[in-house]
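FW: tagging you since you asked about this chain on Friday. Here's the raw sequence from the shared folder, copied in full. Didn't touch anything.
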Amino acid sequence: MSALDAILIPFTDPWEYELHFPRDARGPAVARTTLKAVLRAHGLGEFTDRAQLLTSELATNAVRYSLGPATVRLRWTMPVLRVSVTDTCPLVPVPPAPSVPDAERGRGLLILDLLADDWGGLRLDGSVFGAGGKSVWFELVLGGAGPVSPGPATLAA
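HL: got it, structure written out here
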């Protein structure tokens, strides 16, 4: 057993990661790459495709519609992964109405509605949280039992 094995938290223990990025078009790609690395390291590969797509949608909207930096937070509480994106724009998206096939906007929320097990958003009061803005989140629920405990092979993959 290596020293690395001794400090890995059990699969069922909660954890949280947070990434801050500037209002920059490269931010969503950095968020996707970081999310993929975290999920692989924790043995949650089954979430990767959906989580990357949904995180990309939310992070892209943060860059497109806010005037400041954004934050992506990943939180695991067995069996739920919650990903939230916080930005400085106070406008919280509303659930999608029936889609018009050639609509220019609103497809991201439709994707969120279809692929997430749950999602929502809330406005952040500037007097309490500083700059104000909003946080939009989604949850994915683990379908299987997952690994008994992730090991070094999971980290190296």
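FW: Helices lie at 3-6, 27-41, 48-65, 107-115, 126-129, 152-156.
HL: agreed, and The CA atoms of residues 43 and 147 lie 6 Å apart.
FW: great, closing this out.
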